[in-house]
Amino acid sequence: EITSLLSLCGGQFSSEQEIRINSPFWILNIPSEEMARGLMKRTVCAKSIFELWGHGKSAGELYASLKNYPTDKMLPYLQSDSTYKVRIHTFNKTLTQAQKVKKIDALEFLPFKGKVNLKNPEHIFWILEDYGMNPNDVPEEPIHLYFGRWIADGQRELIESYSVKKRHFIGNTSMDACLSFIMANHGRVKPNDIVYDPFVGTGGLLISSAHFGAYVCGTDIDYNTIHGLGKASRKNQKWRGPDENIRASLRQYGLEKYYLDALVADFSRPIWRKGMLFDAIITDPPYGIREAPRRMGSQKETVKSDERSTENHFFVSSSYHLSDIFFDLLKFGAEYLVMGGRLVYWLPIYRPEYTEEIIPRHPCLKLISNCEQLLSSHTSRRLITMEKVKEFKDQDANSYLLDGQYMPYRGHNSFREKYFSGVTKRIAKEEKDNQK
Prior knowledge:
CATH architecture of the largest domain: 3-Layer(aba) Sandwich
CATH class of the largest domain: Alpha Beta
CATH superfamily of the largest domain: Vaccinia Virus protein VP39
Number of domains: 2
Shape: globular
Radius of gyration: 26 Å
Subcellular location: Cytoplasm
Keywords: Cytoplasm, Methyltransferase, RNA-binding, S-adenosyl-L-methionine, Transferase, tRNA processing, tRNA-binding
GO molecular function: tRNA (guanine(10)-N2)-methyltransferase activity; tRNA binding
Structural class: alpha/beta
Domain tRNA (guanine(10)-N(2))-methyltransferase TRMT11 N-terminal: 20-156
Order of helices and strands: HHEHHEHEEEHHEHEHHEEEHEEHEEEHH
Domain Ribosomal RNA large subunit methyltransferase K/L-like methyltransferase: 166-291
Strand content: 15-25%
């Protein structure tokens, strides 16, 4: 997320950045405070950003680092007519108030000339202490210390204010608010973009993009979901009400002006005119666990599998293999994304069989990131972000059939069976343990 947002703000992520996998603190080289603030206006992963004045693996190293920090960079924030306060944040340890005061007093060598104001200071300084990631083995002294000037907080309050629990219109697969914003950030969604979700469902992914000022639209094969009809997904509620639809969901957050439309359509069949239409495609395709992947069936299947919706709309559905869904998605992104536009989607994985070779590829799309979210001991889903780097030509339409990469991924057509086989094994093991 941070890498995508840096590029959106005009910065560049350096491969030399200091990344500590087992630490909540991250040192970034950002060229300006303006860019840092722009980054924090979007991120839901980062809590706060600071101008780093000094750091070290012990208190002595921290103080030596602070004494070496250029005084001319400190002085604008330490003037006699300014107010300030110092705060302490410890990760994986709780300090008493007396311990905190002692650590703050130890910084008296810094040239503070202003007055302390604990309620409304002009400048806030933080001591950050890292006590490791293991709560069962907390060291007596921190393994790393940082001191810096607070610049801005991230947008973590969006997770609560856009919580699915408070949303009028939800379904069985409505995306968690935090993940929705992360996906929009991976897609580098910005004001006046056009964002499309081909498996729109209840429109949860449209909301996060609209929050960032993009115009949103989507399609789905399910007539009832698009129109907010049929049975409700909430407990103790039988039928959906009049305010349970995608437009009303955006209206709930004051975002209705960004809603273009949602269409009943089969993603496996073309409905869009030729040309680059979308700045980002952000979606969560059905995996066959809570929602079945479907597409329109052939004429021969019509008699066998006619289904009637509550509004007397007929449709014929047949199974839509996972491999076909994802390669249709890549082909669509290659054809309809603008140059530099991004495709962001979730890919379900059976972990014992996972290799990077099974990530679907396309010659027009460059893989930007591949992030795992664990679902169970044997399954996960990966957030795949791809960027359009080459113009689509007709010969690229079925390019995936020409390489040997298509066949390995076909094994994931049985993801549902593998998912539930793991559940069955776990239940059997629990029953066996209970009998003992």
